[in-house]
Amino acid sequence: MSGTDTDPIFIRATSKRNGITSVVIGITGLLVSALWLSFAPDWLFLAGIFITSASLVALLIGWFKLREPDHSIEITPHSITYHHRLGNWDLDWDNVQRIDCPRVRHGLDHVDLEAIGFRIKDYAPFLRSVSPRLATHLLMEQRPLLLQNRDENCATGSCYEQSVFDDKHFKLSDGEVLTGIKAMLANRMTQLRERLGFDVFISATELDRSPGEFSSLMKECQQARHRAVATD
């Protein structure tokens, strides 16, 4: 960790990079295409349309990049916060049981997924920190994870269709009963724990280093938290 022990660590997603560059390229391309279509001969008209289309795509990509928060993850001595344009989730270190790269069967071998998994002790604090909009996004983003380590008797994956949006009520450890999108997210977390051993996942595109390196960083932070608690 850099700085003092109380300094937060900010992680900037790789998907956030080059946003301004993409916008500049898109605007420049549109200007070039406007001049091209105005002065180029008719037989070069299609080339001008191609430049316009490519410029619009670059502009759109840059706009989506700039919409995301400057930092995807904030790590403090007390908690881990995930930032997204649709909201945040917060996870206290004391509520983290395990952090690692999830592994899946691939034939006779096991391979790491391009993600980081968090196994948590109590769902209640985490679920209360998630906004309904972010919960909806997580359900859609992590849907492909349901097909990992699937039952050998379900080769097509169709037997998991019912569990994709499991909207049964979910009872938290403190007795509160969740309904709606929060219940669906809680049920999804239990399904992913059964298949991959973790409840919450962050994609590698949200990191500024490889999942393995980020996992090592998180384990160091978790050990530092345990030492700090032991000395109090």
Beta-strand percentage range: 15-25%
Computed Rg: 22 Å
Distance between the termini: 20 Å
Biggest sheet details: 4 strands, antiparallel
Helix/strand class:
alpha+beta
Work out the helicity level: 40-55%
**How many domains would you count in the coordinates?**
2
What is the molecular shape? elongated
Spatial order of strands in the largest sheet: 1-2-3-4
Low-confidence stretches: none
User: Could you tell me the number of beta strands?
Assistant: 11
Q: State mean pLDDT (0 to 100 scale).
A: 84
Helix-strand string: EHHEEEEEEEHHHEEHEH
The total of helices stands at 7
In brief:
This protein has 7 helices and 11 strands.
SSE topology sketch:
Layout: E1 9-11, H1 19-39, H2 45-67, E2 73-75, E3 79-84, E4 87-92, E5 96-100, E6 103-106, E7 109-112, E8 115-120, H3 123-129, H4 132-141, H5 161-164, E9 170-171, E10 177-178, H6 180-196, E11 200-203, H7 211-231
Antiparallel strand pairs: 1-2, 2-3, 3-4, 5-8, 6-7, 8-11, 9-10
Helix pairs in contact: 1-2, 4-6
